[in-house]
Amino acid sequence: FDCLSERKAHTIRGSKKSWPVGTALLRQYTSITMIMLVEGGADMLAAYHFLSRFGIRDVLPVAMLGAGAGSHGIDPEALRLFRGKHVRIYPHNDSAGLDGITKWLPQLDMAGCTVSRASFAGIQRPDGAPAKDLNDLTSRLPGSHEPYHDLFA
Hints:
Layout: H1 25-28, E1 34-39, H2 41-54, E2 59-64, H3 76-82, E3 86-90, H4 95-110, E4 114-117
Parallel strand pairs: 1-2, 1-3, 3-4
């Protein structure tokens, strides 16, 4: 680790900020019909939690990592793997999330993806604060997750 300028996932040899973590699985699992594009590792784990909870098997979560994930685009090779898929973006409910949507939508359109956006508007955490991201929805554990099923359909 002494050779790394910082200890972040994108500094691992062969990685880069523009490559969504998990995308390589599209080469192996060709039956994937929808991609969940999330911001950050915590949201990726939350996505796997909800997909398991709802028994959804043909969806693959992928994550853009790092602060300002929207400031860099999606790697062209990853976009080739996305081609023809439905990509649902789960942006953070903040300015960085808006930056991601602004950057990624044209790229996904040009790659031939069908794109939709999940919204956390109107969803509150148990403490009354507005939900900012997919991970905030796990704060209802072990409560009911049924109100969130539409975010994955």
